[in-house]
């Protein structure tokens, strides 16, 4: 699999001559500016039903236009753009007519019913992210503070989060694979049965996959009622509902329980302010059993791997997203170490996954 293909062939730019460095810089910035073409193309195809149609059967532009009620030439332009972004494949028939196909894996992530569907991400962007990014300059001018003047965490609403929660399910499988491996290397669990608390569980997929990985594990997911409905439905879909319980509550104030063998926090700390993150660490410690493990999955910056590593570059951009959408951020491993220490915990492992790091901690 390739990452996103470049759209500028910088090898053809002159390496010397008048203004060569400026021309190179302009091409680089321009390539960033036209990145908005990709969601424009994908969202248009989603709205028109292109993915549903091609997920059923391959089609030519004229066939697809007739099916969707769109203009044939314009449909062809959109399909060629999808091909340029490697969303669809194309094949030229003997008569010279181009046919388009959508691979099964791509069809699943672009279908609203797929376990790893990205349609929720599209909905979230429309409800919140697009307008939020337009206001980034204002956020930089003013910062993100509450009425008391304290730095605020992210204020995404339940309604907005409902769209996003399943749209980021695809992050889970590689994370759970590495988390499961790391837990086994640490000798966890020490008994055949174990209890897990999933704080801010979202769709519950991390719990569900861990329940599949560890047959003796049971889990409690805490979130708001609107989101827990999604988690319960998904636990039934994945066959783990008998070991997945839910708690409709506020993890910042409600009693989290005691003596859990594993406390899991996925994409929770980046929603916090620095102060609220420290308080959350203390609440996590109170819910942890004496030999329990805390697993934090988040955008954790670790400059020991190089400030411009793939992970750290993504995490720094992610922090900007948090600023744009209401607060929070991407914090450093030193920040986490300080919060953990103040809660009587200490880090025992830090594991890389494709777009996150997994930090494991236990009692000091």
Automatic annotation (TrEMBL):
The keyword DNA damage does not apply. GO terms for biological process: methylation. It comes from the Bacteria. One of its GO terms (molecular function) is O-methyltransferase activity. Pfam families: Dimerisation (PF08100), Methyltransf_2 (PF00891). SUPFAM superfamilies: S-adenosyl-L-methionine-dependent methyltransferases, Winged helix' DNA-binding domain. The keyword rRNA processing does not apply. This is Methyltransferase family protein. InterPro entries: COMT-like, COMT_C, COMT_dimerisation, SAM-dependent_MTases_sf, WH-like_DNA-bd_sf, WH_DNA-bd_sf. Residues 31-105 form the O-methyltransferase dimerisation domain. Keywords: Methyltransferase, S-adenosyl-L-methionine, Transferase. Residues 194-345 form the O-methyltransferase C-terminal domain. PANTHER family: O-METHYLTRANSFERASE CICE, PUTATIVE (AFU_ORTHOLOGUE AFUA_4G14580)-RELATED.
């Amino acid at each position: 699999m390739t990452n996103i293909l470049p759209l500028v062939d910088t090898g053809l730019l002159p390496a010397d001559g008048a203004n060569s460095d400026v021309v190179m810089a302009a091409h680089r910035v321009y390539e960033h500016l036209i990145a908005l073409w990709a969601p424009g193309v994908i969202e248009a195809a989603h709205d028109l039903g292109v993915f549903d149609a091609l997920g059923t059967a391959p089609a030519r532009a004229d066939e697809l236009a007739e099916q969707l009620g769109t203009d044939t030439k314009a449909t062809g332009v959109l399909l060629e753009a999808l091909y340029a972004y490697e969303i669809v494949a194309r094949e030229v028939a003997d008569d010279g007519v181009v046919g388009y196909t959508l691979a099964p894996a791509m069809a699943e992530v672009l279908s609203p019913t797929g376990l790893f569907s990205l349609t929720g991400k599209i909905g979230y962007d429309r409800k919140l992210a697009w307008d939020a990014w337009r206001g980034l300059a204002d956020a930089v001018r003013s910062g993100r503070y509450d009425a008391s003047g304290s730095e605020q965490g992210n204020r995404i609403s339940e309604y907005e989060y409902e769209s996003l929660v399943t749209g980021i399910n695809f992050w889970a499988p590689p994370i759970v694979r590495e988390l499961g491996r790391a837990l086994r290397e640490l000798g966890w669990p020490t008994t055949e049965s174990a209890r897990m608390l999933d704080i801010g569980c979202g769709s519950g997929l991390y719990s569900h996959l861990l329940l599949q990985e560890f047959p003796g594990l049971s889990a409690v997911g805490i979130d708001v009622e609107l989101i827990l409905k999604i988690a319960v439905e998904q636990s039934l879909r994945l066959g783990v509902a008998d070991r997945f319980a839910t708690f409709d509550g506020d993890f910042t104030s409600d009693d989290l329980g005691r003596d859990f063998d594993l406390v899991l926090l996925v994409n929770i700390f980046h929603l916090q302010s620095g102060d609220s993150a420290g308080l959350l660490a203390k609440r996590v410690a109170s819910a942890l059993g004496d030999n329990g493990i805390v697993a934090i999955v988040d955008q954790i910056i670790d400059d020991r791997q190089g400030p411009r590593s793939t992970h750290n570059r993504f995490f720094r951009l992610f922090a900007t997203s948090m600023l744009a959408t209401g607060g929070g951020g991407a914090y450093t491993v030193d920040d986490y170490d300080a919060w953990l220490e103040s809660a009587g915990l200490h880090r025992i492992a830090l594991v890389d996954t494709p777009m996150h790091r997994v930090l494991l901690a236990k009692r000091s």
